[in-house]
Design goal:
This protein has 276 residues and is an alpha/beta fold. Among the domains are: 65 residues, membrane protein fhac (Ubiquitin-like (UB roll)), CATH 3.10.20.310; 73 residues, no CATH class. 34% of the residues lie in helices and 30% in strands. A 9-stranded mixed beta sheet has the order 8-7-4-9-10-11-12-13-14, with helices on one face. Strands 1-3-2 form a 3-stranded mixed beta sheet, covered by helices on one side. Helix 2 packs across helix 3.
Length: 276
């Protein structure tokens, strides 16, 4: 008798478990059907019809749209944003930022900003070990002038006479320079001080007054200033202090016709040497 009661209880538990499990299966099935329906809707109904360009740029809307690889009829939801951006950057090296926005039900908006050229690198010739024979050397560099933004992106290989209003950087050699890529500098000790001085001068508002920066010796950096001064900076150590000295001496201590050499290599002995 007790055995039959136990079997009856087991059967009731199994029936209850089956009843309790039925809603879970239905919920999972509904979720799967919903996802499938959403994918089908995205595939069937959301197609690209228009591609618009927002932002000031030298590139036409048609050029950027073609560079994106997107075209009318492509799926609005399923395209790869990363590959689209890569295609635009490759075809449009002057672009600094690219954003891709989906504008439902059928639009793509490409939002861009441009790089601002701030300096020109004069690529110097250099001898380096031959990677195939260490007993020999090969010549690299000497590829001309490169337009560059403050982050070191190479924008264009230009003639020497072009953009004469921009600061020129001397004493460095570029390694395999390529438009749209970051400048790789052969002289490892030069890259950090170069961009530190370049960006500090731009933030300070004096970059446009600097005619040329010479990095031939990383610890004897010099630059031309206001067309009247040669500034011996030394290294970029204590650069903020040296910039304050520069403003103090030029703007408060010297007359508007003064010309000569400002030696700021040691802030403790900063001095002005007038031209003869």
């Amino acid at each position: 008798m007790a055995q039959r009661k136990g079997q009856s209880k087991q059967r009731r538990r199994r029936r209850r478990a089956r009843r309790d499990g039925t809603p879970t299966v239905l919920v999972l099935l509904c979720l799967i059907l919903t996802v499938v329906a959403m994918i089908l809707a995205a595939t069937i109904f959301f197609k690209i019809e228009t591609i618009t360009l927002t932002g000031s740029t030298r590139y036409s809307q048609q050029h950027v749209a073609e560079a994106s690889g997107l075209k009318a009829g492509d799926n609005l939801v399923l395209f790869d944003k990363i590959s689209v951006k890569e295609g635009i950057y490759e075809a449009c090296p002057y672009l600094d930022t690219v954003q891709i926005r989906r504008r439902y039900p059928s639009g793509i908006e490409i939002i861009v900003t441009e790089c601002e050229p701030v300096a020109i690198i004069q690529d110097e010739k250099a001898e380096v070990p031959d990677p195939e024979d260490e007993t020999k050397t090969i010549t690299i560099g000497n590829t001309g002038c490169w337009l560059m933004d403050r982050n070191g992106k190479l924008l264009e290989n230009i003639p020497y006479s072009q953009h004469s209003e921009l600061t020129r950087i001397y004493g460095v050699t570029l390694v395999k320079p390529e438009i749209g890529k970051s400048a790789e500098i052969l002289q490892e000790d030069t890259k950090k001080p170069l961009f530190l001085l370049l960006n500090t001068a731009e933030d300070d508002g004096i970059l446009q007054d600097i005619g040329g920066m010479d990095f031939s010796e990383p610890y004897a950096i010099r630059f031309n200033y206001l067309g009247r001064f040669v500034v011996k900076l030394g290294s970029t150590e204590d650069l903020d202090v040296k910039m304050r000295y520069l403003h103090l001496i030029v703007e408060e201590k010297l007359g508007s016709n003064a010309a000569g050499t400002l030696d700021l290599s040691d802030v403790q002995t900063a001095r002005f040497i007038p031209n003869d």
